[in-house]
Design goal:
Two copies of one chain form a homodimer.
Chain A: H1 4-11, H2 19-32, H3 44-51, H4 55-68, E1 72-75, E2 78-80, H5 86-108, H6 113-131, H7 135-150, H8 156-170, H9 177-182, H10 187-199, H11 202-231
Helix pairs in contact in A: 2-4, 3-4, 5-8, 5-11, 6-7, 6-10, 10-11
Chain A binds a DNA duplex through residues 1-4, 6-7, 18-20, 43-46, 48, 53-57, 59, 75-79.
Pfam family, one (chains A, B): GntR
GO molecular function, one term (chains A, B): DNA binding
Keywords (chains A, B): DNA-binding, Transcription, Transcription regulation
Chain lengths: 236, 236
DNA sequence: TTGTGATTTTTGTTGTAACATAATTGCAAT
DNA sequence: ATTGCAATTATGTTACAACAAAAATCACAA
């Protein structure tokens, strides 16, 4: 790069390694936080200038997110944050049930006492976050809870595919914030999962996690349906 | 592009649309045909010059394939065709069972008499190809057979994920050619699937397809194990 | 006010050069 | 012969400019 120092100077962020990855992680972070409202356009040059990098890494990151389904194309040269779509939500949920169910059951076989300890601590964090209405934190720890179980199976390909699915639905989570605390999302299923894990009942762990996914689906579905009316006029 | 006509002239291929896609499809095609032996390096400039394009579309296509798992990085700046790996093969097989099982069962619910006709014709083609030892054709029609069923479920995201899995194992198929005809790969399972489909027994269709995947896994596994000895010295 | 066509602006794609670093080669010492 | 290190080559990454096409804007007429 002929101006490698410029990016660091103008952006002043403490990143290292490939700029493509930096842009990718930045956008991914914003998306999973629901910072972008559905329909928002993300042109290459705008993203590049915002993050103080050239158009090449910005383009690569955006294309990667489009490929993953975290962003969608509304036209031949227009990339936007996807609208919540009932059919797509159903699809992703079915895939999540299949793959996360698999990961949970396989992972449960490798659980240790330490795993149970970790999960209990994470669940406490979730409850505390819900109490204090720190929804973003709750969401973050909730993800950590799931993947703590899934990671046990030792299948990195499976893990990355599941992460891609989370990224796909992630941009819809901001609709859940209000209801998130009141419904004590996931508390019951998580406790059941922990108990089953401690008892070595792998299939029960799977069922608990699947129920958790289904419960989340019902909430996302409601949010999606309530927005169908607003979707006719995508104002960008 | 400042020399858009150069690419078309030098390559003289009849492609249109994005050059990235052209490179991607070309490489994908070579990989699924087993044209590249595991360990082969694929540098950006080499691929670009071979196909008569700039380095940008070549880079994008290669990165995409790496992301999909069809190519792997053996070092920080070295992309190679992946070696057959037992653990990875197991992973992909588990994922295939989960997702293709899902697609088969959901798809079976939407099957029609026409579907059965199509599948029977495809199966005839497979048998004919096996008789005449046209393994590549058999492999191609075999894929068409599977996806004819999977497409019925009407879940494009699921379909594309399954396709990515096929691409991952695709580069290993060339090891199967000799045994392919003798074992009449997939014939029995396919016929069971067709019958179950005609009778509307969705779960039986799923089971038949899953058995087909397991049978293929056993063969790929044998090929992988027989090559472990040669893998210590990746000659490139 | 609304629809339609032309004009202007925006934007994705691609080739290229420069740079840093990984990969390779060559050489010398043991 | 083999190992370790230095020099050389090869290669991925990035910024940038030019181009084509899409998107937005605008003007004008119904």
């Amino acid at each position: 790069m002929d101006e490698s120092t410029t990016a660091g100077a103008s952006g002043s962020e403490g990143h290292q390694g490939r700029l493509s990855d930096y842009v990718y992680e930045s956008l991914k972070d914003q998306l999973t936080r629901g910072a972008y409202s559905p329909g928002k356009k993300l042109p290459i040059r705008t993203v590049a200038e915002t993050l103080g990098v050239g158009s090449t890494p910005a383009r690569e990151a955006i294309n990667r997110l489009v490929f993953e389904g975290a962003l969608v194309m509304s036209g031949p040269k227009t990339v936007i944050v996807p609208y919540l779509d009932l059919a797509g939500l159903y699809e992703v949920t079915q895939m999540r049930l299949a793959l996360e169910g698999l990961a949970a059951e396989k992972g449960a076989a490798n659980a240790t006492g330490e795993t149970v300890e970790t999960l209990l601590k994470l669940q406490e964090k979730i409850s505390l976050s819900l109490d204090e209405k720190r929804y973003r934190d709750a969401l973050h720890v909730n993800k950590e809870f799931h993947f703590t179980i899934y990671r046990l199976c030792g299948m990195p390909h499976l893990l990355s595919t599941i992460e891609a699915l989370w990224l796909r639905v992630g941009s819809s989570f901001h609709d859940l914030y209000p209801e998130f605390a009141e419904q004590r999302y996931g508390v019951h299923n998580h406790m059941v999962a922990i108990e089953a894990l401690a008892e070595g009942e792998a299939s029960f762990v799977r069922a608990a996690m699947e129920n958790d996914i289904r419960d989340g689906y019902r909430r996302l579905k409601k949010a999606a349906m309530s927005r169908v009316g607003h979707r006719a006029a995508p104002s960008g």
